[in-house]
Amino acid sequence: MILQLQPDLAATASDIDRLTLSCQPFLEKNIQSLINCMDDLINEQQKVSAGSEGVSRHRYLCCVRTMREERPQVARPWSC
Q1: In angstroms, what CA-CA distances link 44 with 18, 22, 31, 41?
Q2: Virtual CA dihedral for 35, 37, 43, 45, nearest 10 degrees?
Q3: What is the C-alpha to C-alpha distance for residues 42 and 40, in angstroms, rounded to an integer?
Q4: From residue 64, how far is each of 1, 35, 60 by CA, in Å?
Q5: DSSP 8-state symbol, 78
Q6: In whole angstroms, how far apart are CA 1 and each of 5, 10, 33, 79?
Q7: Tens digit of pLDDT for each residue in 63-80?
Q8: Angle CA 73–77–74, to nearest 5
Q9: Alpha-carbon distance 45 to 52, whole Å?
Q10: Across all residues in the chain, what is the average pLDDT?
Q11: Which of 5, 7, 8, 52 makes a 20 to 30 Å CA pair with 68?
């Protein structure tokens, strides 16, 4: 009775080979999807980085402009 419960090894090896072949397209499709998602993520990260640099540049220019406006004008003797 116990011998009847043990699977045939040849059938199991064949099943494993069939399973391996049937999973390959599925795995390739998922890997390609992950690659595409990573490309999208990299592109979005670059956009965020560029936007952040633009905001920093704008804040710096506003700060410089404000400092120039608040600085008292000193009369220069050499100016005409």
Answers
A1: 40, 35, 20, 5
A2: -120
A3: 5
A4: 90, 43, 6
A5: T
A6: 7, 20, 48, 112
A7: 888 888 777 666 666 655
A8: 10
A9: 10
A10: 80
A11: 52
Cα-trace Rg, the chain: 34
- Tokens representing residue 67 in the block: 């400092």
pLDDT-derived band at 27, boundaries 50, 70, 90: confident
Q: Quick check: pTM over 0.70? A: no
Residue matched to tokens 């905001």: 55
Q: Locate tokens 């120039």: which residue? A: 68
Give the separation between CA 56 and CA 50, rounded to whole angstroms. 10
